[in-house]
Specification:
386 residues; alpha+beta; Arc Repressor Mutant, subunit A; Nucleotidyltransferase, domain 5; five-stranded mixed beta sheet; 13 helices; 38% helix; binds zinc ion
């Protein structure tokens, strides 16, 4: 991707910690865009005096600026608006897979400024922490003063005694790893770690198609099937970091076996590997099966149709359970929505509660770099201690 010159910071990134009101005002501007002082004061229930103090601090810290005069509201009267200064802080986002590290530097609005990836030297916790530190150091040459680091990985992450712990990550072979603390110690900046699907859900909820919604569901389709949920404006974690574990939801008890050995679950139809396995032809990979399906090959088309049916069952189940404002589908297996739209719709219709409102899925195009960017959103949320 293109590199842009690093903007100069007006203030050191390690400014004084923000107060609760300052964080609230900043969050409001980040999620909902520029607003007048009067709007912010009204929404946050602040007096004019305290809002003046809050905005002064945020402006002194280089996080917010007073905007150009715009025509706003029904009266059309001009009014000054406050807006985020994207260049006010920079953040490092990291995505770990079983064999690679992906890193991205973003600004305060989660726009990517630089990207970097490399193979993991090993899966030992010490080596991975050191490698994250190395990526930080390398990217800090052009983007000094990053305020916080966020790391997404496949696995169960939960808060234990106030610390975020990777309870387990089978891809990396980890159990009970205090990854955020270890990275924070190595780098001397705030660090957070989270399940990658939940991080992506947070990214969509703050900066993507779900911005401003109180409730939404995100389904990721690809190597695995992930579900992220937002309820009451918060990403749901669950007691053990396992909320949204619907990848083994039953679709058809007579279906194929999934990698975990049971039959006919969502994963056994919808994961990229399941779509390839359905063709029972050695030497194929997901890209080649996708080409076959697009070219009209009957077996490949059927594999995608079955995958679409499973996705529809999953989406209807989530809609019935959660009644969300939005259901977003993304991930590198997103082609199923292009090849099996009718099957998805039919499965939703068949599995939706009879009184349920119709569902329209929001299909979001996906690039792998989104995972690392979602890590940066974790860092931004942590910076605002949301
Ligand atoms: Zn299964």
């Amino acid at each position: 991707m293109q590199k842009t010159p690093a903007p100069q910071l007006d203030d050191p990134p390690s400014g004084a910690p923000l107060s609760g009101l300052e964080r609230s005002a900043l969050r409001d501007l980040l999620i909902h865009g520029p607003k007048s002082r009067a709007e912010i004061a009204r929404e946050l229930g602040m007096s004019r005096a305290s809002l003046t103090r809050v905005t002064r601090t945020l402006m002194e810290q280089g996080l917010v600026a007073e905007g150009a005069v715009e025509l706003r509201g029904a009266t059309g009267r001009p009014s000054e608006v406050l807006h985020i200064r994207p260049e006010g802080r920079r953040f490092l986002g990291v995505k770990l897979t079983s064999d690679r590290l992906f890193a991205v530097v973003t600004d305060l609005t989660a726009q990517a400024l630089a990207e970097y990836d490399e193979p993991l030297a090993s899966r030992s916790v010490e080596d991975v922490v050191e490698q994250i530190g190395g990526a930080y150091d390398r990217l800090a040459v052009e983007h000094p003063g990053m305020a916080a680091v966020g790391i997404g990985l496949a696995g169960d992450v939960a808060s234990v005694g106030g610390r975020q712990i990777v309870l387990q990550s089978p891809f990396l072979g980890w159990r009970e790893v205090p990854l955020a603390d270890l990275v924070s110690e190595r780098l001397g900046v705030r660090a957070s770690a989270e399940n990658d699907v939940r991080a992506l859900t947070a990214a969509e909820h703050w900066f993507g198609i779900g911005a401003g919604y109180e409730s939404m569901v995100l389904i990721t389709v690809g190597a695995g099937i992930g579900v992220g949920m937002v309820v009451g404006g918060n990403v749901v974690t669950g007691a053990n970091g396992k909320a949204g574990s619907l990848d083994h939801l039953l679709v058809d008890g007579g279906g194929p076996r999934c990698e975990r050995g049971h039959r006919g679950c969502v994963d056994s139809y919808l994961s990229n590997a399941a779509i390839v396995a359905a063709l029972r032809t050695p030497g194929l990979d997901y890209a080649s099966v996708l080409d076959l399906a697009r070219g009209g090959d009957p077996a490949a088309r059927q594999a995608f149709r079955d995958a679409g049916h499973a996705l529809g069952v999953l989406a209807a189940t989530l809609a019935n359970a959660m009644d969300p404002e939005k259901i977003v589908v993304t991930g590198d297996g997103i082609a199923v929505t292009e090849l099996a739209g009718d099957e998805i719709d039919a499965a939703i219709a068949a599995n939706r509660h009879p009184d349920g409102a119709p569902i329209a899925l929001d299909i979001q195009p996906f690039e792998f770099a989104e995972w690392a960017r979602a890590g940066a959103v974790l860092a931004i949320r942590d910076f605002l201690r949301f």
